[in-house]
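Contributing: when you submit paired examples, paste them exactly as shown. First protein:
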Amino acid sequence: MDRDRIIIAALLAVWLVSAGLSVSALMAEPTGDGFVRGLNRVTGFLGWQLAAALVALPLWLTSRRLPKGSALRWIARVPGWWAALLLALIGTFIAAGVISSYVGSPPDDQAPGPVTAPVD
C-alpha cells in the first residue's frame, strides 16, 4: 500500500508540472504573422495537456487499488477527469465545426432563384 502511495505522489507531481507548463504555454508571447499568430500558445497548451493526460492514465489505474472513498483515491482521479473534460470540450468544438458546415448551406444541385421581383 505504501508503494502505491509513493507512485501516486510521484505521478501527481509529474501531472502538476505538466499541467502547470500547459498554463504557462498559454501565457507565452504570441509569435507568427497573420492567421497563425498565437498558434504557438494553443499547440503548447495542447501538447502539455496531452503529456498530462498520458500521466493521468497510469495514475487512474494505480488508484484503483486504493480503498474506495479514500481521499487519495479521489485526488488521484482528478487528472483523469480533467483529461476527459478537455477531450469532451475539444470534441464539441470539432463536432460544431463539422455540423455547421452542413447546416444552412443550399444543396449543390440547385441553382439559386431570383432574389426579388422586378419593381414596377
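Second protein:
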Amino acid sequence: MKYSLAFITILMVSCVTVQPVSFNRTGEVTCVEKGRTTISLVSTGRAHNTDVASEYAVRNAFENLLFKGIPDSNQEKPLVPNEVESLKKHGSFYDDLLNKREYQRFIIESNIQNSAGARGSAINDVFLKIDLQALKSHLEQNSITRKFGL
C-alpha cells in the first residue's frame, strides 16, 4: 500500500504541465564594453525553456536601452524619455520592434554566455553587441525621438 501511494504521488507530480513564463523586464542588464557606435551587454532572461529565455534576455536588453538606460555605459539615459507616452503614441512601432523582434537587425553579435535551470524553467545570460547608432537612427526616422535626443 505504501509503495502504491508513493508511485501514484510520483506519477501525479511528473504529469503536471509546465506553465510558460511570460516576459517581464528586469534590470538584469550589464554593460561589458562601450564603443563609439556600439554597446556590448550581458542580459538575463527567464522562461520555460532555453530558447525562449534567450529571446527574453535579448528583449530585456532592448527594453532597458529604450526605456531605462544602462548604468556605467555609453547609454546611461534611456533612448526614449517617456515610456508610457511613447508606447501610447507609437504602439504599432513597438509591437514590430519588440514583439515581432525587429530589434534583431541591430544585433551585430550574440551568444549565450551562461545557461541554467531545471525542468520547466531556464535562465540564460546572453551577450549582445548592438549597433547603437543604427538603433538611434531608426528611432529618429520613425519619429520616436528627435535628433540629439530633443
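If you have annotations for the second protein, write them as plain sentences, like these:
The CA atoms of residues 113 and 125 lie 5 Å apart.
The longest helix spans residues 50-67.
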